[in-house]
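thread: overnight batch results

M.L. [08:02]
morning all. the overnight job finished for the chain we discussed friday. pasting input first so we're all looking at the same thing
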Amino acid sequence: MTKTPNVSRFVKTLVPLFLFSIVAFIIHYFWTENYVPEAESSQWVYSVASLYALFFVFSLVIMSVLLLVRAKNLDYVGYTFLITTSVKMGVAYFLFRPILAVTTREVSIEKTNFFIIFICFLTIETLLTIRILNNK
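M.L. [08:03]
and the structure it wrote out:
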């Protein structure tokens, strides 16, 4: 007999993801709008908003899959996290390739933005996965 995922657990796990995403996006967007020249940011391949939306969707999918796996078998949550994170990293690299191809100075801030957003979402996913694993 398999358990179904608990809706309150699902919401409880995803609320920090929503809050983190909103706060980080507001801070990052404010910084970009006020401290990065518009001529530079207009040449970027991906805007800050599109990167946050993309990584938020990645994180939402990863956390949903982890909660579904947890409902089936807690022992596989860690393995599932490693697999889904590796897939996310592969997709992120594929999306990052156009930015890597450009070698001008203007793109260095875009590269930094991409890595900061990637690492921030990876951190929150890791912390939420630890929370899932600790709630037996």
